[in-house]
Amino acid sequence: MSLFNKIFAGIGIGAAKVDTKLTSSTFYPGEEVKGIVVINGGNVEQKIDEIYLSVLTHYIKEVDDRREKRQAEIAKIQINKPFVILPNETKEIPFSFQLPLDTPITIGASKVWIHTGLDIKGAIDPKDTDYIDVVPGGLMKEVLNSINRIGFKLLQVENEAAPYRLRKRLPFIQEFEFYPTSGPFRGRLKELEIVFYSIGEHDIEMIMEIDRRARGLSGFLAEALDLDESYVRVRVSRQDVPNLDSKLINIIRQYS
């Protein structure tokens, strides 16, 4: 009977199961993620070589004029040393880790999830998936609120494969696309795109793509030649927050 149980456990029948329980489902980049991993033993004794948590997302990469969805690993955390789980035994292993500052925000089609895996030699590895909401925090939140106050509406957010010149730790960038609905840039700009390029606790660096609306013959020609776009690198620190609206207006006006 024990032999058959081992064979079945090797193909996932009657094997150990894993369930990750998070203390919250909403986090901001840089926040501490806490929870427990619950492991329920199966019908036989099994050695767990590793328990790991992976923070994952999807991004879009254009290949031969096709848009392909690819998976990216934002972080991987090992949370235990090898141990043995006995039949029908339950173990709870607490964990905590810092959500990386460059974790994308879960707006629109952007999703982030935590994948839990057990590494069991000679068996199908049990898995668990938990989706989380990642919201703007700190200076990113201040910038997004400021963009809204000066008259821009968020149209879409998408994770896209990073051009070589913009690639950093991750293979993608998250692009925020805005449209001016009121304020000083309505009728002057077609759209404003922002990539938060470097995110720290005390300052952030972002790249703005300012797409000017064609005005007159010269404006039309510039648009036709793709010369109506300007790329601006902007750094924002905590000291900028009280006057952030005017700072962003002045920068955007300079290139619009």
TrEMBL record:
Pfam families: Spo0M (PF07070). InterPro entries: Arrestin-like_C (IPR014752), Spore_0_M (IPR009776). Gene3D superfamilies: 2.60.40.640. This is Sporulation protein SpoOM.
